[in-house]
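Hi support team,

I submitted a single chain yesterday and got back a structure, but I'm not sure I'm reading the token output correctly. Could someone confirm the output below corresponds to the sequence I sent? I've pasted both exactly as they appear in my results page.

Thanks,
R.
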Amino acid sequence: MNIAIVGLGLIGGSLAKDLRANGFASKLTGVDSSSIHRRVALELGLVDECLPLEDAVFEADLVVLAIPVRALCQGMVEVLNQIDEDAVVVDMGSTKAEIAEAIQGHPLRKRAVLAHPMAGTEYSGPQAAVSNLFQGKAAIICDRDDSDPDAVRLAERMFQSLFMRVVYMESKEHDVHAAYVSHISHISSFALALTVLEKEASSANIFNLASGGFRSTVRLAKSNPTMWRDVFEQNSQNLLDVLDNYLEHVQDFRNDIAQGDFQQAFRRMEQANAIGPILDQVFESTVK
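Hi R., thanks for writing in. Yes, this is the structure output for that exact sequence:
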């Protein structure tokens, strides 16, 4: 399997690392606009060579697009314009509706599989690539019926070789759920970081008092702002809906505290505890 990975950041680099280790890929070709990313990816052995997009796509059986969502629409069209009709292209973006619309009606639309591996860290670049990043996580395949069955099967095989759970959704449905389960977490983390930085002018106080709970809640604030700006832009309407809902709950807690109604705050926290068994189940599936 000759695989071209376009975008040699955390996702593309980690994917290359695992597909080489599990033998799914016989050759890995990298494509990246950054000369630094290309150099580091080669030095780390993530890919066998780096080529311009046209050359990499020409030789590939499978093209994986792991580039920022802002570039995905144009990037997918560009790749579909160049791939062999037997090749498959899979994108890894965290929003789907816009890219689905962008490639609708393309002659080779059925060779494209829209996917989103629900995996990542707060770090970026090829140096952030880690083994087993995807293990136990969900891989969302969107609009399955719009792709050729053999293209979907190849995407499924790739994700299953990474020990991922494959889930199927429609693009618009995916973007709604991603806003609630993934994107709001980053906004909350960014907002908390700004709140703490505004109040705690001394970094020593943060260093001395920050516990595991604070670190786990705010760690996403270290994420790449460019990447998340683009995600927020592409999924803005769904994000506004979830933000309105989230702010209602924050306001409820504020009202309880202002009114001294701590029993009501207790009841809200009890209701929130229902997330526990769900997260335990997710953790168990991840470590298996």
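A quick pointer for reading it: The CA atoms of residues 154 and 287 lie 25 Å apart. Let us know if anything else looks off.

Best,
Support desk
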